[in-house]
Design brief:
The structure is a single chain. With 181 residues, the protein is an alpha+beta fold. The chain has a single domain, classed as Hypothetical Protein Pfu-838710-001, CATH 2.40.320. Helix content is 26%, strand content 43%. The chain has 5 helices and 9 strands. Strands 1-5-4-3-2-6-7-8 form an 8-stranded antiparallel barrel, surrounded by 4 helices. The radius of gyration is 16 Å and the shape is globular. It starts with a strand and ends with a helix.
Length: 181
């Protein structure tokens, strides 16, 4: 699967909620997410622009665990990349397997995320602990699909929501790491 994703820093969650309401975007859920990121023993994911994480999600309805691999970004405008995700049953056991394979846990990124659906877009308002407010808009495509049209339509939706700058290709993990320097 190809994930076409663009994120931007926003001024206010309340302002964006109003704008999402104006275009009839539907709030579908709110989640608390904790992402435990790992680095490879054979290559530095910070250098190769890859990511491996264990994500724990909690909402009123569910508690889920996923392992996700994200490949390097494939363009200069967005965070479009290959993504493989699988649900798992035990985060600690998965982490132990990674440790036995000499993967090192790098950092945990914690966020509270509101999900909205608008047409075929998934929109999220992200309150990442330690960062300013962000909004992400994404579309998932089949492998081999032309992502450039999807990418353009995401930027058009941002513009419709009044966002024309503040776009960020850097991951939340990278943004938090930059703050530590």
């Amino acid at each position: 699967m190809i994930e076409v994703e663009v994120k931007a820093k926003i001024n206010s969650f309340d302002e964006m909620r109003e704008r999402l309401d104006e275009i009839n975007a539907v709030k579908v859920k709110t989640e608390h997410q904790e992402d435990r990121y790992f680095n490879s023993p054979v290559k530095d994911f910070a250098q190769t622009d890859e990511a491996l994480r264990i994500r724990e999600t909690k909402s009123d309805e569910k508690h889920n665990l996923f392992i996700t691999y994200k490949g390097p970004k494939i363009d200069k405008k967005s965070k479009t990349r290959q993504e493989v995700e699988m649900e798992i049953e035990d985060a600690d056991k998965c982490s132990k397997i990674f440790e036995f394979l000499e993967f090192k846990e790098v950092r945990t990124v914690i966020k509270d995320r509101e999900y909205y659906q608008f047409e075929n877009y998934e929109i999220s308002l992200d309150n990442v602990h330690g960062l300013d407010p962000y909004m992400e808009i994404e579309i998932s495509l089949d492998d081999g699909s032309d992502y450039s049209k999807a990418q353009s339509s995401i930027f058009e939706l941002f513009e419709r929501l009044g966002i024309t700058d503040g776009f960020e290709r850097t991951s939340y993990l990278e943004l938090l790491e930059e703050l530590d320097k």
